[in-house]
Amino acid sequence: MSETRRPPLLTFLTYNRLGNTAISLPSLLRTDSDFELHIMDNNSKDDTWDFLQATKDPRIKSRTQFNQNMGVAHPLNYALVNRKEDQDFINFEYDFRIHNKDFVQDFWDVLSEFPEMGAISATTFPKQLQLIDSEIIKTPEKFINRNGKRIYLDTIMGFCSFFPYETMNILKYYDEINCLLDMEIQVRIEGLKKQTCYAMDIRTSHTTMGGNCDTCLAYHNPCEQGERKCLTHYKRIISDITTTLGFDIYRQNIADRKEGKMSYTCDSLFSGNMTEEEKKGSKHILELFKNFSEGDSK
Predict the structure, then answer these.
(1) Rounded to two decimals, what is the model's pTM?
(2) By C-alpha distance, which of 9, 264, 253, 263 is closest to 118?
C-alpha cells in the first residue's frame, strides 16, 4: 500500500471465558502487526483480569477493568476516545484467533484496492468460507478480485472488523442506546454511501464454537467432565441479553436512521458531547447491563 497510515487503534473486550482469551489474545500478540491495543474487561468473575495483567507487550497501551458489565458499545467507545483523526480502528473479539501474520497490513492492502469500502471484516474458516463459496455460485457479482485481493460484498460481522479512519471520522462512536452493534453501524455506513465486505484472505477461527476444550490453555482439565465453561457461558449471556433488553426500541432506532430521521454520527458518555437526552438513554443501558455482572461466578 502506497499510503503510510498510523498504526490502528485496536480494542479487545473480555467478559469471563478465560479459556477463550488465553487463545485469542496471544494470537494477536504473536503477529508482526503494529497497533495500539486497548484491553477492557467487563468485571469478569473468573481469572481473566489476572491473565490480562500478566500479559506483557509494548503494543498494549491500556488495561481497564470496569466495576460492572458495561455491555459492548460503552467499553469500545471508552477506548475510541483515544483514537486520532488519522487512525484506523479494529475491533477484535476475545473468542476468535487471528491466523494472518500481519493482518493490519493485509487490511490496508485490501483497502488500497477497494477504497470504496466503509468497513472490512475478516472471515472465519472453514465454515464461513464454505458458506461464501456456495453464495458465490448464486451471486457471483458479489465476489470481486482486484490484483489478487479477494472480497465478498456483504454485511460485516464484529469479530474482527476494520474501520478506516475516513469512516470513523464521521461515525465517531458506536451507538450507546442501540445494542444491535453490527446491525446499527452497518446502517450508518450504508448511509455514507459506502460498501462493506469480507476480506477472503484474512482468516480467523472461533475459539468457543470450534475450540478444543481438551487443550485449554487456561483451565487445562476442568472441562473434561463435560462442563465446557466457555461455551456454556457464551450461550447463557446471549440468552440473558436477549431476554433482558429486547430489541424493539433498537430496531426502531435503525429504522429511523434508514429513513434519515437520525444522524449517522454518534457521541458517547466518554466524549463529553452527548445531549442530556442521549446521556439519559446511555445511562439506562448501563443500568440494564449491570445486572449481568451480579450473580455470575466461575
Answers:
(1) 0.89
(2) 264
